[in-house]
Amino acid sequence: MINDTIVDGLTGTDPPAFLEFPETPYLLLDPKVAAAQYKRLAEAFQQTQVFYAVKANPEPEIIRRLAEAGSSFDVASTVEIDICLSQGADPETLSYGNTIKKAKDIRYAYQRGVRMFVFDSEGELQKLAENAPGASVFCRILASSEGAQWPLSRKFGCTPEMAADLLAKAPSLGLNPIGVSFHVGSQQLDPTRWDPSIADAAWVFRKVAESGISLNFLDVGGGFPVSYLEPVAPIEEFARAIHGSVERHFGELAPQLAVEPGRYISAEAGVLRSEVVLVSRKSSTDTQRWVYLDIGRFGGLAETEGEAIRYRIVTPHDGQASGPVALAGPTCDSVDVMYQKTPYDLPLALKPGDYVEILNTGAYTTTYSSVGFNGFAPLATFCIGDNA
Q1: Alpha-carbon separation of residue 300 from 23, 336, 378 (angstroms)
Q2: Which residues contact 385 (CB under 8 A, 6 or more apart)?
Q3: What is the residue extent of each domain of the chain?
Q4: 245 and 198 in contact (C-beta within 8 Å)?
Q5: In terms of Cα–Cα distance, which of 165, 170, 258, 260 is closest to 204?
Q6: Distance (Å, rounded) from C-alpha 18 to C-alpha 21?
Q7: 259-314 pLDDT, tens per residue?
Q8: Does CATH place domain 31-266 in 3.40.50.1820?
Q9: pLDDT higher than threshold 90 for residue 387
Q10: Fold of 4-27+267-383
């Protein structure tokens, strides 16, 4: 987690003068924590190529530190490509992981030196053939998100049968088919959930081999969890489970393994500071208070939809008498409610003007922030710590 002394020093106080922060809300980000998370994951996943999912947090300082540490990058747009290259990443370490790309964006990526692309349909494969000749391509297959707190739908991926057919077709289009990818959902809590998809991938490898094509790349995606309200299994447990599945289903013909962590690397690097705007009740007998913050689902906390991601909140009155609360944002939209059913108890002394810290918010917050809904500015980021 981000340096506890920083959180302790901020809780309930005005922003330190030497930091010169504007008014809340804002994200405090320590890129050193992200680099440390990368190191721990890379050590757990021996002989595995780590592609940081830039969409989780594209802060340039994080990208620079990860590039220096040897990370590769999963990019979803030309803007993310530009950020990575501007921070010293080698274009050969970039994988264009979005299966929905405009032809001009494929051309741009190819012109900038990107040579790895993912697809999940015949139409996308054809676009790659026309705009990225000779590129290395891999196919994303459908995967179950059971066990994930932020599930992924059928928007991405195709059946293993279709994947095998398309990969076998790729050489005739002038492309280099290298393997398979999948994603079992974000904040996936069950280390065994990768096994069925690894089995599907092994089937695709064998099926494509019947066409005389040897695949050698398996991207098992990201989804590795971090602790919010509840603790999660350590990353080493996920690595053991995945390596075990690969050995079981591929045997001695194990492919080059890749992972795409986003949340795991950047979430714990961030603390979101917010101000209490209002504390109210819906009736004189209501035991549940409503606490309205100056940030909500439109300001960066989109993952609270369905109360899926349940952040831990620190207040200046922690340790005092507390009671149940609902937590909501500041906008004039009735869906701007973070938590109403999840049990949250906050101090009874909490009042408007108090600052609160929302922990482990370095991933999927700034990138989910609206550009001006109700006139609220996008969520600002301030990097702290040694920038050397």
Answers
A1: 16, 11, 8
A2: 3, 30, 31, 32
A3: 4-27+267-383, 31-266
A4: yes
A5: 165
A6: 9
A7: 999 999 999 999 999 999 999 999 999 999 999 999 999 999 999 999 999 999 99
A8: no
A9: no
A10: Lyase, Ornithine Decarboxylase; Chain A, domain 1 (2.40.37)
